Each structure stands twice: as C-alpha cells, then as structure tokens.
Amino acid sequence: MVAQRIEGKQISDEIRSELIHKTAELAKQGVVPGLAVVLVGEDRASQVYVASKAKACEQLGFYSEVHRLEASTTQEQLLALIDKLNNQSNIHGILVQLPLPSHIEEKAVIDAIDVKKDVDGFHPISVGNLVIGDDSLLPCTPAGVIELIKRSGNTIAGKHAVVIGRSNIVGKPVSMLLLREHATVTICHSRTANMEAIAQTADILVVAIGKPQAIGASFVKPGAIVIDVGINRLEDGKLVGDVDYEDVLDTAGFITPVPGGVGPMTITMLLANTLKAAEQANR
Ligand code: GUN
C-alpha cells in the first residue's frame, strides 16, 4: 500500500484561516498581535527565514518589526534591544533568529526574553512549563508536528512514538509533547544501540537528525506515521528530508514530504504563539 501524504501546506493554510478569524476577534478589542524579529549578521538562510516571518505576519494582519543588526553588534547592545522590546506594549512576541555570531552567548540572549513573549518556546521557564504540562508557548516545529499528526486524522494516545534525534529545538520538546498527548515515547540518538529494531516498533516515527535520507524502509513498521523534520540541501540543489521518502513510501501508512510537510507548519505555529501571547496580555 502507498502511504498517504500529509500535506503540510494545506494543514498550515487551514490553521492560518482559523488564526485570521481569531485575530479579527481580538481587533474588536483594539488589540493587534505584534511580533519583533531580531537578526544579527548576514547569514543568508536566516535572512530568508526572517523575511518570510515578516511576510506571514503581514498576511494575517499582525504588526511586525524586523531589527537587522550588524554582525559586530555586542551582546550588551543586543540585550539592550531585548530589554526595550520586553517593555514595548505593542510587541507580544520576540524572536531572535539563531544561530547568533560566535561572540554572543545564545543562552544569555534567550534567558533575557520575557517568558510571556517567548514565541520560540526556548526560554528555560517555557521548557520547564512544557515538561510539567502547564500552559505555555510551545516551540513551533514540535507543536507543528503534533498538529500534522492530529489534523491528518490520527490519534496519539496509546501509540508507541519513537523520536530519532535529541536536540533542544526538536527532539526533546517533541518527545515531551507526544508524552503529553499520552503516547509511549522512546528517544533514539547517535549512541542508541539497535536503533533500526526500535524504530521498527514505532506507530509514530519522528525523525530530526539533520542527515539527508538517512532513514529508509528498514526502519519503518508497516502502516506507521512517519514525520520527517529534516531539511537538507543536496549538492545538486535538491531539498530532501532525513527520511528516504521514495524508499519508505510503500511501507508507511502516512508520511510528510520535504518540502511541504513540517516546513510550512513552523511559521504558522509562530503566528499562533504570537496571537496567543497577545490574547494573554489582553486578559
Ligand atoms: N533558526 C532556525 N530555526 C529557528 C527557529 O525556530 N527559531 C529561531 N529563533 N531561530 C531559528
């Protein structure tokens, strides 16, 4: 049987139309969600991400401001900007694009963001709330993974979810979210023994390792839901995931393509977080 494609673009559009509706409701109370995006340096990929975040805000009727700072910006200057944004009432979400230049300590910057405006969900208090199960702003890509599974008609409770990858940005938080959704969760990583055998027992397989097409059909249980978080550019310019899509297609029950799977969800969940932060600030 050929796996059903989980259409990230379509699900993302569906969520965005819900957000437009909620934004209009909030506008009646005189509140416009506001997002500040901070970019330090000239990283090409980051410039593209930042531009698409600003454009997405515009499409939903959000206020946004982009702060493009020179690569030579000091940590003190960046922290001063964050302090200003923390105190700016028309800004509900602050996102500092990563990676930062090496002379700036990432942790000091993330820690400085007001947790109520932490739309990336990277602040230690946000991470703690995620683990405890308290209401908080959830990291965007992991939250998008959960939406893709649910909105493609699948349930999570009681399933065995195997997450390959243990990064702070994806592997760890997506594992916690799956646990919150009552899955039985196994986390695999570069030192895991018998990874293939473990992956074969997964009803839900989430892959986030940053290795092009590393996971083939031998890792997949027939009928499994396969979520590919990887985005890798091959030498010929082609974009591929961490999963070998063509190889897995006849084994999986559901699969996300790359591009067009998890990718479109990340910015959508950022918008959802910004709206949520604006709603909470208005209470
Ligand atoms: N760089 C690549 N992805 C992300 C992300 O989700 N958030 C931030 N802040 N920087 C990134």
Automatic annotation (TrEMBL):
One of its GO terms (cellular component) is cytosol. Residues 139-281 form the Tetrahydrofolate dehydrogenase/cyclohydrolase NAD(P)-binding domain. It catalyses: (6R)-5,10-methylene-5,6,7,8-tetrahydrofolate + NADP(+) = (6R)-5,10-methenyltetrahydrofolate + NADPH; (6R)-5,10-methenyltetrahydrofolate + H2O = (6R)-10-formyltetrahydrofolate + H(+). Residues 6-120 form the Tetrahydrofolate dehydrogenase/cyclohydrolase catalytic domain. Its EC number is 1.5.1.5, 3.5.4.9. Keywords: Amino-acid biosynthesis, Histidine biosynthesis, Hydrolase, Methionine biosynthesis, Multifunctional enzyme, NADP, One-carbon metabolism, Oxidoreductase, Purine biosynthesis. One of its GO terms (molecular function) is methenyltetrahydrofolate cyclohydrolase activity. Coiled coil: none annotated. The keyword ATP-binding does not apply. NADP(+) binds at residues 165-167, 231. GO terms for biological process: L-histidine biosynthetic process; methionine biosynthetic process; purine nucleotide biosynthetic process; tetrahydrofolate interconversion. CDD domains: NAD_bind_m-THF_DH_Cyclohyd. Catalyzes the oxidation of 5,10-methylenetetrahydrofolate to 5,10-methenyltetrahydrofolate and then the hydrolysis of 5,10-methenyltetrahydrofolate to 10-formyltetrahydrofolate. Belongs to the tetrahydrofolate dehydrogenase/cyclohydrolase family. PANTHER family: C-1-TETRAHYDROFOLATE SYNTHASE, CYTOPLASMIC (PTHR48099:SF5), C-1-TETRAHYDROFOLATE SYNTHASE, CYTOPLASMIC-RELATED (PTHR48099). Homodimer. HAMAP family: THF_DHG_CYH. This is Bifunctional protein FolD. It comes from Paenibacillus phyllosphaerae. The gene is folD.
